[in-house]
Design brief:
The complex is a heterodimer of chains A (about 110) and B (about 325). Chain A is mostly helical and about 110 residues long. In chain A, about 70% of the residues lie in helices and about 0% in strands. In chain A, helix 1 packs antiparallel against helix 2 and helix 2 runs antiparallel to helix 3. Chain B has a two-stranded antiparallel sheet with strand order 1-2. The chains are: A mainly alpha (about 110), B mainly alpha (about 325).
């Protein structure tokens, strides 16, 4: 198995793991971590695919991923600020509509 | 032998991702995520993309980790149970949806890989041909500033917009009430700061200068400078200030303003189109301004304040 194939497979796996994490939590901090894991999977998929033998990876893909890393840091920072404000306002680090179908959330 | 290293790194990354999203304890998940970022940086280095390795280590693992830990400190300060009372709500659909979407992503990835094998990436070939005619030795910096300048300008704007959003919504800044009173005996920390902060400034200057020819650039340099400011906050040399000073206001918007002005200048002089940088001086001016903006924004995001002030010792 080639180096590229290993990392492409890892990228797919990490994307799926992040998505599963996002769907299976109501705590917003865990959601932010899951989204970051998902985006790392995407970055890996953009850069890892093989180029012609002996050539460096595609500079355009590298530039896009560099942009992606900075944007995900910015989005995480904004998300954390919103999380802090929500927690201060409502006393809970969760979004209520995430478990409306839950049995113990009849009062919402 | 080298494939064994790849398999180890890839399986380690997958295991860390699993621990981050499904492992017990949110604090532990956060620490695992920081390690995940560092392994990611190693993988970028393995794949031969040092620019991304630097950015991932400085921004993805370093600054994001600091931001996460600062946010946890704020959460736990107001409510010690904020991390403990995490409720898992595993929807019956979570696993099937994740699996199906992963299959979809796998199909896309396979078709991409097949396309590259059949016909060597045309965009990459075109980019290499265009790059042969410019003065910048680092292909990534050239793409960022010369060929996809809009992307980079909008990326700075995203960072600026996110910071405005964070400043507007955040209330608790990382002051003495959150960090605890300054230790009376912190001579070791002071000695460390005396060495590390000037070194970080030197490294940032190097990364900025080298960014034209070798791995490095404004984003990596800005992250290193921002990390130095984070250390100064933790060492109590700087404290959050509710009102930004005029130099801070200028520093936050400097990157977007300088990039836009130089881009408009070349348009006004009738040479080329918008954002076509007129020469190497312009590349360094834009990179330097972006570095200052990025460092300031990251430091302010960390303290959750709108400004910083020096502590009298």
């Amino acid at each position: 198995m080639s180096t590229a194939a290993i990392y492409v497979l890892a990228g797919i796996g990490i994307f799926g793991i992040g998505l599963y994490g996002l769907l299976s939590t109501v705590h917003l901090l865990r959601s932010l971590l899951s989204i970051n894991v998902m985006s790392s999977g995407i970055f890996l998929l953009l850069v890892a695919p093989p180029t012609r033998a002996g050539e460096a990876p595609d500079p355009i893909a590298q530039a896009l991923v560099l942009t992606g890393i900075v944007v995900s840091v910015a989005a995480t920072a904004f998300g954390l600020a919103l999380l802090g404000r929500l927690h201060a306002a409502s006393g809970s680090p969760e979004l209520n509509d995430r478990y409306d179908d839950d049995d113990d959330a009849d009062d919402s | 032998m080298s494939v064994a290293i790849d398999i180890l790194l890839a399986s380690g990354l997958v295991a860390l991702a699993l621990q981050t999203v499904a492992g017990p304890g949110l604090f532990r998940a956060t620490i695992t995520f920081i390690i995940f970022g560092l392994v990611m940086a190693l993988i970028w280095a393995r794949l031969g993309v040092p620019d991304l390795a630097l950015a991932e280590a400085a921004l993805g693992a370093g600054i994001t980790g600091a931001l996460l830990l600062a946010a946890i400190q704020r959460l736990v300060h107001g409510d010690p149970q904020a991390l403990r009372k995490e409720r898992r709500h595993v929807s019956r659909l979570a696993l099937p949806v994740a699996l199906l979407v992963s299959l979809l992503v796998a199909a896309i990835a396979l078709s991409l890989t097949g396309a590259v094998d059949a016909r060597p990436g045309e965009a990459a070939t075109l980019a290499r041909e265009a790059l042969a005619g410019v003065e910048l030795g680092n292909a990534v910096t050239a793409v960022l500033l010369l060929f996809r300048g809009y992307d980079t300008l909008l990326e700075m704007t995203v960072l600026l917009a996110a910071s405005f959003g964070a400043f507007a919504s955040s209330r608790a800044s990382l002051g003495d009430d959150l960090l605890g009173p300054r230790e009376r005996e912190q001579s070791l920390l002071d000695a460390l700061l005396t060495v590390i902060v000037p070194l970080a400034v030197l490294v940032a200057g190097y990364l900025l200068h080298a960014g034209g020819e070798a791995p490095g650039g404004a984003f990596q340099a800005g992250a290193v400078l921002g990390a130095a400011a984070v250390l100064l906050v933790l060492g109590r040399r700087l404290s959050p200030n509710p009102v930004p000073s005029p130099p801070e206001r200028v520093a936050v918007v400097l990157g977007v303003v300088v990039f836009s002005l130089i881009g408009l200048l070349s348009l006004a002089r009738g040479e080329g189109q918008l954002l076509a940088l007129p020469g190497m001086w312009a590349v360094y001016a834009v990179e330097g301004a972006m570095m200052i903006s990025i460092a300031t924004i990251l430091a302010l995001l960390f303290v959750g304040g709108r400004g910083l002030r020096r502590n009298q010792r």
